Amino acid sequence: MVHLVTTLACAALVGTATAATPAKSAQDSLAAAAKASTVSAAAKVWQGAQDVAVFALGLLGVDYRFGGETPARGLDCSGLIRYVFAEVTGVTLPRTSREMSRLGEKVALADLAPGDLVFFNTRRFAFSHVGLYLGDNRFIHAPSTGGEVEIATLSQSYWKRHFDGARRLVGVLPSLVPTVIDSAVAAAPEVRPEPSAPDADAATPAADHAQ
Known about the structure:
alpha+beta; endopeptidase fold (from Nostoc punctiforme); 39% helix; 211 residues; two-stranded antiparallel ribbon; 6 helices
């Protein structure tokens, strides 16, 4: 009962202060709306990245196929990433891992989050292989001829030696960024205050990597 009375008293005081300073109240409301929209946008980005990772897990076991772009016909490394992003986000990524490495925002190894792309030098040229980070030091990828979509860990010696960097696309590419400020806020006046080495992707003319 005491807590309820105290709460009501505080609410009355807040109401009085608001009535006394309408300009400040409008500014505070605008700031609160902007903050809420930003938080909502961040949540959408996080959810989008999670959706990408979860969808990719559904492709475990799909056969590797050099140049493959669909689960029905098989997937290569960049084909896997391209298929996942197209299905989940509607965004069509470039065909090769090298081209994908130029997109989005560079991410440090310590800052990796689910949905980030991880790149490796597996054929003696940079960014020749790509996977999708899942969290907990794991990533999913389409490895090499005779294999299938699988999960590997970045701590394995092979992947540590060949790691080429990571990029973040969800929440960074314009087509993958949710609206941060909704229409109501935007319309308001301004307030100034160790596995076998994987194959390269389909654009690489070289033969399959030797086992």
